[in-house]
Amino acid sequence: xxxxxxxxxxxxxxxxxxxxxxxxxxxxIDFFEIAPENWIDMGGAYGRDLRSFTERYPFVCHGLSxxxxxxxxxxxxxxxxxxxxxxxHGIALFTEHLSYCSDDGxxxxxxxxxxxxxxxxxxxxxxxxxQDILERRIAIENASFYTAxxxxxxxxxxxxxxxxxxxxxxxxxxxxxxxxxxxxxxxxPLAFIRAMPTERIVYLHMAGHYNEADDLVVDTHxxxxxxxxxxxxxxxxxxxxxxxxxxxxxxxxxxxxxxxxEVEHIAQIQGQHSQAMHQHHEQIVRTS
Length: 288
Fold this sequence. Notes:
The protein has helices spanning about 20-25, 45-55, 75-90, 115-135, 155-165, 175-185, 190-195, 225-240, 255-285; strands at about 10, 30-35, 60, 95, 100, 105-110, 140, 170-175, 200-205, 210-215, 215-220, 245. By secondary structure, it is of the alpha/beta class.
């Protein structure tokens, strides 16, 4: 299949939503996202369901367990099977977390990589190998984390930019993760957004979280998106332009007709910025 690039507003392709999606896909949903680990070698009814949607909609593969920052060797078998899945379903984009989640076994959490020059080179080499096996340029996602990086020669924004440059890959910018880290680690989220390289941003995530305490936010993907995160998305589009943006909801999943309201909100903000950009372009043309 010819790979399809996502655009507009998207939603995670979850099995809980399949009965409703098979009846009707709301107009606001332009694309879907899957975790390849959950769909590799999937046959039967679920495999047929996936095929029926990938034939009609763009999909993104968002990895959960590659552990780009981990010390154990990359899971080449997982990567080869991921490429086969993407080839079979015409999926162009693969993204993964800039973190590690394994050490002689899966740790079931995303842990921060040391923000050092040595780590930049190490992680970038693993990203380049991932791109070689997948035969695609990938995007790395800024991850939420709850303990400070064990060693820090630079801040998080500088580390991300250094990895992007060294690996020559793209950025999957998670807006909720920026907000979560800004509260937990006390930095300005808008300054972080501004520090990201526009030319590398190809994909965005939006999600809800849980306020454990005034100074501790947990990235749960189990609640509605809050106003400060919506405001950050608006500013991100203003600074960097509109990119395909997905709503993550992994538990406490409401019915599709309720959930889609947040996808529609993403599309609405995208439309406002696209219209403003079009008007600005027309003004330039008239005055040139």
